[in-house]
Amino acid sequence: MSNLDPIDDHILRELAINGRITNLQLADRVGLSPSACLRRVQELERSGVITGYRAVLNPGAMGIGVTAYIEVGLSEHSKATLERFERAVSRSPEVIECHNITGTIEYLLRIECADLAAYKTFHTDLLGALPQVNSITSYIVLGSPKDLRG
């Protein structure tokens, strides 16, 4: 479903803000009858536009004090090297996101740790110990004035 109309866009924006909104409330906000709204939401789900619903978590309440983005450059660009790196980071609970990207480095990671000491351990004992890692550049998040990830 690649041809979203303005009503579908409005439904998606409302659900991104509050995925637990009732169908009746959603229908009222987007100007549809409840049955028409439900049909549209079900079609957005069926077509894969909506892939799921999640809880938005408070990192501080979960003991997470440090979020960082890390650029990782690899020493080789072979498929086997990429797969070994991806397997290693997929086993790490600190890695929340791993993106293979274009540019001068191969990966961008988002990690979450309890504190800077835990980040240093992750940086040294996991990333620094991987033989395929050639460069690591870290960016510690100081604040997130806008974060629309669900």
CATH architecture term of the largest domain: 2-Layer Sandwich
Structural class: alpha+beta
The helix count comes to 5
- Low-confidence segments: none
Strand arrangement across the biggest beta sheet: 2-3-1-4
Name the helix and strand elements from N-terminus to C-terminus, one letter apiece.
HHHEHEEHE
Mean pLDDT: 94
**CATH class assignment of the largest domain:** Alpha Beta
Question: Rg to the nearest angstrom?
Answer: 20 Å
Name given to the CATH homologous superfamily of the largest domain: Lrp/AsnC effector binding domain/regulation of amino acid metabolism (RAM) domain
Count all strands and give the number: 4
Looking at the structure, what is the overall shape? Answer: elongated
Q: Describe the biggest sheet?
A: 4 strands, antiparallel
Strand content: 15-25%
Tell me the number of structural domains.
Answer: 2
CATH-assigned fold name of the largest domain: Alpha-Beta Plaits
State the distance separating the first and last CA atoms: 21 Å
Helical residue percent band? 25-40%
Question: Could you please describe the fold and organization of this structure?
Answer:
The protein folds into two domains: 6-46, Arc Repressor Mutant, subunit A, CATH 1.10.10.10; 60-140, Lrp/AsnC effector binding domain/regulation of amino acid metabolism (RAM) domain (Alpha-Beta Plaits, 2-Layer Sandwich). The protein is elongated, with a radius of gyration of 20 Å. With 150 residues, the chain is α+β, with helices and mostly antiparallel strands. It has helices at residues 6-17, 23-30, 34-46, 79-90, 116-126, and strands at 66-74, 95-100, 107-113, 133-140. The model has no long low-confidence stretch (mean pLDDT 94). The two termini are 21 Å apart. Helix content is 37%, strand content 20%. The protein is built from five helices and four strands. Strands 2-3-1-4 form a four-stranded antiparallel sheet.
